[in-house]
Design a protein that fits this description.
Order of helices and strands: HEHEHEHEHEHEHEHEHEHEEHEEEEE
Distance between the termini: 33 Å
Largest sheet: 8 strands, mixed
Bound molecules: pyridoxal-5'-phosphate
CATH superfamily of the largest domain: Alanine racemase
CATH topology of the largest domain: TIM Barrel
Strand content: 15-25%
Helix content: 25-40%
Number of helices: 11
Radius of gyration: 23 Å
CATH class of the largest domain: Alpha Beta
Number of domains: 2
């Protein structure tokens, strides 16, 4: 790549109409993801460019599609696994155990035993209970102390559930580890997913540095700084700004450059690669006494399948249609296919009048969607079509899972 050349986030060139035709979506009632493999490659290049020297450990929980694991593994990413199932998935993709961090501070014993048997030796901890568990069951572990550092503006914070206080709790946990002759090698944090308060990273890195000093003073060989996740999946400028803050903070806090910095990006790598094509199968109209009309469309995917984030993160869906953009718009609600009234994909949307059989397109659907699908009401995960425009013959590889 030419030095100084900036790659922006990938601009989609997927021909949705062609996909609908090729896959005969008109004749089925299944929604379809289109996964653009090239998007992962671009994201990886951008990561290398903006976060040089910070090794990404892809957070498998975000999207456990085997195609993601295999593609990122080939590109050189390492992995953040949070359970035995995730570790198994990654090991089965021929990833070496040293490339995995078990980033779950509260580990069930059988999962810890599985990690031990399979050589996954680095894990996060945030309490003395977990330290005692590790001492008893896997004392050869490399331990990373997870501290709490919540950004003030995020889609979802984890601080109430995970992460000890860097000032009042972490030192005591580290001293207990020392007493038990355990091996503490670093500090981790997660500012929260979908982080919009960028200085949170600087705050957390500065707190981590203080604990590095504390650990070094007490004889630990502190080498690992894990800056967690929270990076945007489809906003290049925000990611760039974040990367500047992070690089600056690392340089200021760790000027000696003798530490190993890793991150656990989830959303960043997968959000923009997946576009979901849904079909309207039913329609209703409601009229208020003031005469205002709302159009209701019922589609073949919903919050119990791919749109859990509408409920969990209060995500406002981005929706496209294939009709003329100049047509008049109407107040619209989009419903998922199940009986549950919570199954509402979006409301107060402005869309043209559509009919049963028309399609709605949802871009940026790769994060926290596929692994969250349930079988509620007889529905289940939507199919995935993989497009790879960078395959060696310059063509495309189409496969439906
Ligand atoms: N690391 C840990 C420990 C997490 O819990 C999560 C998300 O839940 C991630 C990384 C990925 O976060 P994001 O998708 O915001 O990058």
């Amino acid at each position: 790549m030419t030095k100084g050349h900036e790659i922006k986030f990938y601009k989609k060139e997927i021909n949705i109409r062609q996909v609908i035709k090729d896959q005969a979506l008109q004749d089925t009632d299944d929604a379809l993801y289109v996964c653009d493999i090239n998007d992962f490659r671009r994201k990886y290049e951008i990561w290398d460019q903006l976060m040089p020297g910070i090794k990404p450990h892809y957070a498998v929980k975000c999207n456990d599609d085997i195609m993601v694991i295999k593609t990122l593994a080939k590109l050189g990413a390492n992995f953040d696994c949070a359970s035995m199932g995730e570790i198994k998935l990654v090991l089965d993709a021929n990833v070496e155990p040293e490339r995995i961090i078990f980033a779950m501070p509260c580990k069930p014993l059988t999962h810890l035993a599985y990690a031990k048997e399979n050589g996954v030796i680095t894990s996060t901890v945030d309490s003395d209970f977990e330290i005692l568990k590790i001492h008893r069951h896997f004392p050869e572990s490399n331990l990373v102390i997870r501290i709490r550092c919540d950004a003030t503006d995020v889609k979802l914070s984890f601080g109430e559930k995970f992460g000890c206080n860097a000032k009042t709790e972490a030192p005591a946990i580290m001293l207990l580890a020392k007493e038990l002759k355990l091996n503490v090698i670093g500090i981790s944090f997660h500012v929260g997913t979908g982080c919009n308060e960028l200085p949170a990273y600087d705050r957390a890195i500065t707190e981590a540095k203080q604990l590095f000093d504390f650990g070094t003073k007490h004889g630990f060989n502190m080498t690992l700084l894990d800056i967690g996740g929270g990076f945007p999946g489809s906003d290049y400028n925000k990611f760039k700004e974040m990367s500047e803050i992070i690089k600056c903070s690392i340089k200021r806090n760790f000027p000696e450059k003798n530490i190993n910095v890793i991150a656990e990006p989830g959303r960043y790598f997968v959000e923009s690669a997946y576009t979901l094509i849904c079909k309207i199968h039913s329609k209703r109209e409601t009229k208020l006494p003031d005469g205002s009309v709302t159009k209701h469309y019922y589609i073949n995917d919903g919050v119990f399948v791919s749109f859990a984030n509408v409920v969990v993160e209060h995500y406002h869906v981005l929706v496209r249609h294939l009709l003329d953009d100049l047509l008049p718009k109407f107040k619209t609600t989009i419903w998922g296919p199940t009986c549950d009234a919570y199954d509402k994909v979006g409301e107060n949307l402005e869309l043209p009048n559509m009919e049963c059989g028309d399609f709605l397109i949802f871009p940026n659907m790769g994060a926290y969607s596929i692994p969250l699908a349930t079988r509620f009401n007889g529905w289940g995960p939507s199919n995935i079509l993989y497009l790879d425009k960078a395959s060696t013959d310059g063509g495309r590889e189409n496969k439906i899972r």
